[in-house]
Specification:
This protein is mostly helical. The chain has eight helices and no strands.
Length: 155
């Protein structure tokens, strides 16, 4: 390995450490900022406990990205869920944010999103399955309505 390669690796490693420290400081500042806020009111407005509010405030901004990826792998539109069932969407985001299986989930989604083993560690599995069943049911109803709108078929 040449000197320039070692220097580039060193800068990259130091850069990553610096980025990590910056993100950590941002999270710490967010959590510290909650001390001056009416936590009970905010938690009530969000539909979470004060403890969950503190945990959520300390999570990475993209803490629910895995839930969005899992929903997409199941053919669900999270925008639609958020619009039609905002309470369900908020609950899934909260559950995903405080889940301890992010590393396993990331691995499963990267490796094989269709592998059903994700249900063994995902606390949103039942909700996602119910939303998928509901979505499939609506698609079937739309297909029936489309056929009914077309009128009688001619030979």
């Amino acid at each position: 390995m040449t000197t320039s390669e070692r220097a580039r690796q060193s800068r990259t490693a130091l850069g990553r450490i610096g980025e990590w420290m910056g993100r950590w400081r941002e999270r710490a500042a967010t959590v510290a900022g909650l001390r001056d806020c009416p936590n009970e009111e905010i938690a009530r407005d969000l539909g979470v406990s004060v403890g969950d509010l503190r945990v959520l405030a300390g999570k990475w901004p993209g803490a629910t990205d895995l839930m969005v990826r899992r929903a997409a792998a199941l053919g669900l539109d999270v925008s639609e869920v958020g619009r039609t069932q905002p309470t369900v969407m908020r609950d899934m985001q909260r559950v995903c944010s405080i889940c301890d299986s992010h590393r396993v989930c990331t691995h499963d989604l990267d490796r094989c999103p269709q592998d059903p083993s994700w249900r063994n560690h995902c606390p949103n599995a039942d909700t996602l399955d119910a939303l998928r069943q509901e979505s499939v049911g609506r698609l079937g109803e739309r297909a029936d309505l489309t056929r009914a709108d077309a009128g009688p078929r001619r030979p």
